[in-house]
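Homework help board

Subject: predicted structure for assignment chain

Our instructor gave us this sequence and asked us to write out the predicted structure in token form, then describe one feature. I got the tokens but I'm not sure how to describe them. Can anyone check?
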Amino acid sequence: MTTAQTPTTPGTGPLHGVRVVELAGIGPGPFAAMLLADLGADVVRVDRPGGPGLAIDPAYDVTNRNKRSVMIDLKAPYGPARVLDLAERADILIEGNRPGVAERLGVGPEECHARNPRLVYGRMTGWGQGGPLAPRAGHDVAYIALTGTLGMIGRPDEPPAVPANLLGDYAGGSLYLVVGVLAALHHARATGTGQVVDAAIVDGTAHLSAMIHGMLAAGGWQDRRGANLLDGGCPYYGTYETADGGYMAVGALERQFYEEFLRLLGLEDLAPARGDGTRWGEVRERVAARFKSRTRAEWTAVFEGSDACVAPVLSLREAPHHPHLAARGTFTDHAGITQPAPAPRFSATPTAVRTGPARPGADTEAVARDWGIPDRVNDDPVADRD
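My token output:
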């Protein structure tokens, strides 16, 4: 058996005592499992020989922090039985395969619930478990494209701006999966009955746009980019370039914040233009010219301590050093990697980065011991040997 290389990870967060099995994948599934692990759950990741395909060194994959890993080949004769042994002792299982794959491998909801009726079986996909596109491949950008949300983002005279994979994979996917499995866990503990949670990125991303759909129905939102209050169409809600090629973000929506914003810019005469959409072009032009007259650092100093709702646009490497984020500990350093600290925060059950990224298969013996997994080495005489 492979010797464990990482310490036991169960923590003291609000999910202390909750056991989670994660069938290894990429993208939103691992991130959802990381969030559960950050909150104190004992997350065991089932890695497969050859890895899931993420082309970075596992030592840097922070979405596997606070987890433990076992190595199981689900296509081997012994593989499904080992996963079912884990599922029998778990509260939650997360998988991110295309519909039907887990069933073909022998670890679908029916097999798992036969062993553990209380299990919450979380399924993370882009298109969902049903519908014409369910069996098709896809990625974040395609999922958010169909929901209408991608088409909202960017300048009207340019192609839609791709928001990395934050909007679909993580906001519309991972976070909805976590909400779903925790709600189902609450139900399972109250009733003794588990269930399947179908978390589709298209569903979650569409749900994120609920307020916009309400505004659209009320006539307060135009169905095109760069023409609305919150999509860059409004000159006092957007970004502006500075003299040194940096950018400042402006969110001076309310009247008092708008007036403070103009005062600090030295453009008080534009106060009457706030609610006059016909003058937005003029406001944008003059505000842009003012921002181009000084550097990002100079404008940051101008707006420091004000309620103008203006902030410098920082890079990924700059952000951890901002005084506010540094004071709060929004980022942390662990195992030589600067990374976001667990969120949100809890007064009675604090969370932390307890261990670095789990190395594939490193915790097989520790998990078997802690979870009381039967020894199935006779099923595969060469499995898990150094």
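Reply (TA_rk): Your tokens look well-formed. For the description, you could write something like this. The CA atoms of residues 125 and 200 lie 5 Å apart. That's the kind of observation they're looking for.
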